[in-house]
Amino acid sequence: MENGKVNVNIINNIATISFSHPKSNSLPSKLLKEMTETVNKLAVDKRANVIVMRSDEGKTFCSGASFDELLTIKDFKSGKEFFMGFARLINAMRKCPKFIIARVHGKTVGGGVGLAAAADYTLASNEASVRLSELLLGIGPFVVGPAVERKIGKTAFITMSIDAEWHDAFWAKQNGLYTKVFANNHELDEAVSELAKKIASYNPEAIEQLKKIFWQGTENWDALLEERAEISGRLILTDFTKEYINSFKKK
User: Fold this and answer.
1) Which residues span the domain enclosing 131?
2) Burial class (CB in 10 A: 0-12, 13-18, 19+), 180
3) What is the tally of structural domains in the chain?
């Protein structure tokens, strides 16, 4: 569990990707790579007509980038490669010909917000507050930005980026990040299950064509997200960022 784990389960044409990490379901490189590979494999797996992405239970759906790993980055190449992990996962979700449902049961930060935004349909509990805290770190939501902005619009994205504060689940729903918000995890799970069963019965060819339409205008994201990873890769080396992460870890 030190580096986290990814589990996959396929039942009745519904594939469930479940990720976990002992530190608030954070995402180190290893986990990002495994999740990307899993999405790419399911994209061509005829046993799966729909994908559900979720994390293990706990107060946090995803706390974003692994601070432990960020502190080990000593050069631009390593910095860029770390953030390319998020870029590759978002692009894999974007290109996957199957609808991806995100089940967000708790707080989500940074890269976790990117996952919620990159999903095609996101359901959440009322505990699923969101935050883009990257600017506090001395970087910014560069890689996840296109996915988040596409979902919530430029004004709300600017608000999240600049104030870097928590916004509750109802704010996220009002601004389009979440489709529906539920009172508890039991109701959330029932809704996810019902929706997944419904989608699993649809024509896969129709889903593939409709998803292409949903994501029109993002064809440049392979290059765009790499450019954004380069920005983050440079900024993560600054003294400001190193000092912030060290002070945060000491709290």
Assistant:
1) 5-200
2) middle
3) 1
